[in-house]
Amino acid sequence: MNVLDCIIIGGGPSGLSASLTLSRARRNIALFDDGTNRNRVTQASNGFITRDGIKPQAFKEIALKELENYPSVSYFNATVTEIIKDIGNERFTVKTSTSEEFVSEKIILATGIQEIFSIPSIREFYGKSLFSCPYCDGWEQKDKPLVVIAEKEEHILHLTKLVYNWSQDLVVLTNGVQLSKEGKTELQKHNIQIISEKIKELIGNDGYLQKIEFETGETIIRSAGFVAPSYYRPNQFAEKLGCDIHENGEVITDGVGRTTQKNVYIAGETERSKPSSLMISAAKGNKAAFAVNTDLTMERF
């Protein structure tokens, strides 16, 4: 079996960026992706220079088409199910959902993160009329009657202050959480309504919000808004490979993608277990690829 220079797991902006950089460095690499990218539900990816407003799938297709120019990269539409390291982390065996096995000297983890919503019906509207990032989707929602849904005071205040920049017609829903007196005062001085009743249901058609019903039976009319999900890594590859994890959930690195485990690198949202923009994720992938290529170069020269 041929030993690859690097296997990249995850075909989001960080994994695609890392693949391009390493293929241009003439490294033999394999990129695995199973189509579960977090931004797949959005209608448009905004804020990426030269690609503002592009559909996420089109963004990926352009990137994959560019990779076809480089013969040393192979793309596999498959889920990685297991990574087995040998003693000393000199080789990694990667197993996939298609029952194939690949061996590589180095691994880049770029599998991203996923959202958790405390209100299940948010998922029906997420990406069409409810969003998590004002920088990504605030412009399109400017001056609309918006809702902010969050359940931790620090998230409520931070997100509301941001969204206020795009629309001052705001209602904040805390879903049963009581804000501190200071928190209430800070929002109310800007005439922002705060509703602390528990949310029963979000109502709308085809992903577009129309109104929100509370357990009291009352409703409010809102056309869009922003939410503060919780996030998690969809796999435990970093933990199983022995990478050191900070108590806040962040994978410890040297700042350019090298983890505390030899030959294991990480890129994009996977590292911090927090959301970031496409541009930042792509830059992280580029950095991790630089680290991989530098290490291969120095080890073999």
TrEMBL record:
SUPFAM superfamilies: FAD/NAD(P)-binding domain. GO terms for molecular function: oxidoreductase activity. InterPro entries: FAD/NAD-bd_sf, FAD/NAD-binding_dom, Ferredoxin-NADP_redctase_2. Residues 5-149, 178-277 form the FAD/NAD(P)-binding domain. Keywords: Flavoprotein, Oxidoreductase. The keyword Oxidoreductase applies. The keyword Flavoprotein applies. It holds the Pfam family Pyr_redox_2. Its cofactor is FAD. Homodimer. This is NAD(P)/FAD-dependent oxidoreductase.
